[in-house]
Structure formats: structure tokens, C-alpha cells
Amino acid sequence: MLCHACRVHLRRDFPYCLRCGTLRRGAAPTAYAAPQLRGLDDPALLVPLTGPLTTLGRGEDNDVVLPDGSVSRRHARIVRTDSGFRIEDLDSFNGTAVAGVDLHGGAAQLADGTELSVGDVRLVFEHPRDARIGSRTMVVATQQTQLPTVVEDEAPEANGQLTARPRRRSGWALKQVPTDHGAPRWVLNNTRTGAYLELDEREAFLWNAIDGENTVRDLLFAYAERFGELALPRIESALTTFERADLLRGLPGRPEDTGHKGWRRAGRALYRALLKLEISFPGLDRAVTRLYQAFGWRLFTRTGVTLAWLSVAGGLVAFFAAQNGRHLLDFGGAGVLGPVLLIAGYVSALVVHELTHALAVKSYGRKVRRGGFLFMMGMPFAFVDTSDMWFGTRWSRVVVALSGPLSTAVLAGWCATGAAVLPAGPAAAILFHLAFGLYLNTLYNFNPLMPLDGYQALTDALRVPRLREEASAYFRGGLWRDLRAGNRPGPRQTGMAAYGLAVVVGTYGFLALALLAWHSRIGDLLDGRLAEPWVTVIESAVVAMVAFPVWAAPVRWLARRVRRRRGAATAPPPHGPVGASLEGTA
Predict the structure, then answer these.
(1) DSSP label at residue 256
(2) What is the pLDDT of residues 54-63, one digit of tens each?
(3) What's the pTM value of the predicted model, to 2 decimals?
(4) How many angstroms separate the CA atoms of 150 and 143, rounded?
(5) What are the start-end ranges of the E strands in 191-342?
(6) Which of 40, 343, 360, 568 has the fewest Cβ atoms surrounding its Cβ within 10 A?
(7) Residue 408 has pLDDT above 80, yes or no
(8) Using alpha carbons only, how large is the chain's radius of gyration in Å?
């Protein structure tokens, strides 16, 4: 269900649109907890808006008395209407501002989280929330996260693992996201790089405890006091994750003033490019917003969704009816024009596929930060960045993930219908080939073994964000340890093992196809131009680059093992006082 004012998805268990404040059709405001006015400068000021009319002013006869010299005796009023809550300025002397805009005797609709200025008194209008709705996003801009006692260019000296004072970098946003299974979850966003991290309650506690003053030892004891355990490995893992997302600095053993910083950055950039080379275009959100407001919202209405599924079902029937007498690569006499139009159709369908992802993100009021193309294992892919959906519910992420393949299936259905209805000829033959290719593309994107749309929807539906990694790790190691120990795997372990086996087979099968394709292309290109062994050398180098995402992981694992053994061999024995203090606290 979409809001009839701003066209964003509504919650059926909440009366108002959380984006614009418009009352959901058919909802009774009195059946839900009333919204409230909260003082931004006075924490004691908290007024629920239970009546149809609430007056604000300095006079004692007002519903909300604001004893401030900048407030008029009858300054403003908040009215509950059929469409939501509205504030009206009563020709006050110092004016009423909504989100920084002075009303000048006018009125404005109030949305959740709207900041008001009644004279010099700052208030915020907000709806009550629970775990199903999620908390408001806490955004900390660059200039707001600099600690006054720390100079930005001076990293704290890391004298040991427990004495370092990590501090947060500038520019981040934190939000508790809606959940439907009780366990609270948070999303932490690096607003400078666009990186997102999903946190549990303990990781969010650690993030909030990092203030540049607390040492790692302080974090350890604060964590123990809160959760009842000395979990140094977990704390180290969380800090490392924050640091890798460029959200933290000052970790022990990571001095930031080394002379090899530029080389390290270049090496990391090359490593990321070999894993996944992206060509992206930022700043797409404004254009996508215009498209959504113009026509895109209609795709997510009840009528639009019903027509889409009817197109899919009818298209499958038409495809099987149209395939009689059809042959692949037979374009009905279209000649060279047939393959050209077919490629143009595939490209157009790809654009529609990614655009539908972007419009689905806008239907939930989130942002589309960028889009573009990427090359992975030598294969090209198109993408739009939907990571802002981490601030939404998991089922909203499932909808966004499946919207792209569904749009491709709809286009395939239309092409199949055209091929079935039109008489035999070039047009019908091209439409049939296009439908065939789009159906294959739909199945490929629904494939849950590759990190594509179907996999993203599956991980959100199962609440296992790293399903491929966890299943592969269990199949390679955990399953065999269980069997050697005589432990019979349960249903979940059996499913993880089966999925892990399918991932391993599917990954290496996809890699084999990619290698064969590139081997053939490079061989055809160099045939007759270079002599052996240079042809073999070049082919091997290209194949190694294509297969880099596969063999890089075991090489990194081996390198970490070597570093740990070297560190263990050279590390001094632990000192008694630290161990004694930890044991005493436990």
C-alpha cells in the first residue's frame, strides 16, 4: 500500500506515513498512541498531542505553555486533520519555522521527526515507535564528530593491545532497523564512502562506547559490565570491522603515519579492482526520484503488481504456444537487422531491470546513491546501489531484490505474447528470440547460488546475510568435524551442507565457463600473431586475472596463518598484572 500523498510504502500497523505524516486511509488516529512534541533544548518538555487541537504560547491558557520571551501569548496551534497533523502560525511576533522555513502566518504539514521553532524554542514532532517501526536515523556529519581534545592529524599512540584509544572517524549514520523476530538490529553507514554494516546489540553498544577517551581495556570492562563476559576476541573483531569500513582510527598495531601509506592504498585499490572492477556514476537519486514521482509509483500499486503477475503468467502460456515451428538463430529473413535488434532489446531490458530496482528503492523512501557496471570473473554486469535499503525491513529488501527479475519476466511475457499473436515473419521471430533470452536472464538472476538478485532475496528471507560464506565454510570444515566426532547433522546443518556443496560446484562451474570463454577469445586474437611460449604466457596471465576472486581467498588465508605464526614466535610472554586484573574482574 502506497501513501496517497508521497507515494511511499505504508505500514498497515501504523496510522501515518513516516515520510510525510499523511494519515493512512481508513486508519483512526485515536486507535494508536498519540504523537508528541519534544523539547530539543529542554528534555523535560514532552507533550502528547491527544486532542484535535493543541495551542502553543506563553499564556497560561495554552495547552502547551512555553515561558520564553520570544514566544507570543498565543503563538501557534497544531490541528489534527483527516490527512494528518498541521501546525498553523497565529500571526506571532517572532514567527514559527518548520524545518527552517518561516510560515509567516501560514500552515505546514508535520511529518515524523519534523523540527519546529516556536520563537526561539526548538521542538520536534515525532510519532512513537517500537521495534517493528525502528528508531530514527542518527546522522552525524563530518564537522560534528571531531573530538575537541584530539587533533585530527595526530593518531593516539598504540603502546599495547589494551591501552590504545580508538576513535570514530567523521561522517556516519546509525539507525535501529525494524525487526520481526525480537532481536534488535542496527545499521551503521559510512556517509563518506557509502559502506554499510549491520550490527547486533553488542556491536552497537561498542560503537556507542567508542569516544576517543575509552581505551580498549575500558571497552572490555564496559562490555563485561553490560553483558557479563570478558569477550576480548569479539571486541577486537568488531573494532577491526569498523576500521575496515573506514569508520575507526587509532587501533593497536595500525599506526597511521607510516611512509608506506600510499603504497598500501594503491595495493588495496588494485586488489579490489581484481576482485570486482566497478565503473559507477554517482548522483542518480535526483533523476530516479523524478521518474518515480512522474510514473514509477504506479508500478507498485495493487493494480500495477496484479498486471505484472498476469503478464508473467500469460507470457509463459504464449511462449509455449509460440515455440511451435520456431528455431533458434532463425530470424525469419531479417538478416543482419535481426541480431542488431536483438542486442538492442537485451540492452533495453537491462536498463529496465536496473531501473526497476531503483524505483523499488524509492517506493520505500530510500536513496539510490549510484549505478553503473562491474566486471567480475571477466564477466560484465550492471548494477544500481540499493544498499540504503539496509535502513528498511528485511521484507522490503526482498521486494527490491526481486523487482528487477520480475520486470525482466514481464518484458519476456510481452515479447512472447507478441510472438504468438503476430503472423510468421521477422517481427515475430525477433520477439520470440528476445523472449527466450529474457527468460534465461530471469532464471539466471533468480539463481540462489550466485550473488545476484535471487541470492540477496534468499539471504534476507532466511536472515543469514553471509549465507554463501557460512554454508561453504561448514561444507569444507564443519560438516567433516561433526561426522568425525559422531555428531549427526540436524536439518539446518544438512541444508547448509547441501547449499555449500551447490555453491562450490556452481562457483567452479561458472569459473570454468568463464575460463573457457576467455581462453578461446585470447587464442583467437593471438593466433598467428605471436609464437609460443608467449601465447601460453599471455593466456595464463589473463586466466589468472579472471580467476583472481577464487584463488585470492585461500592465498590471503595462508598469508594470515603465516603472519600469526611469526607473531606468536616473536611475541613476549604475557605479563602477570594484566592477566590478574582480568581474572579478578571476571
Answers:
(1) S
(2) 999 999 999 9
(3) 0.68
(4) 13
(5) 196-199, 248-249, 277-282
(6) 568
(7) yes
(8) 29
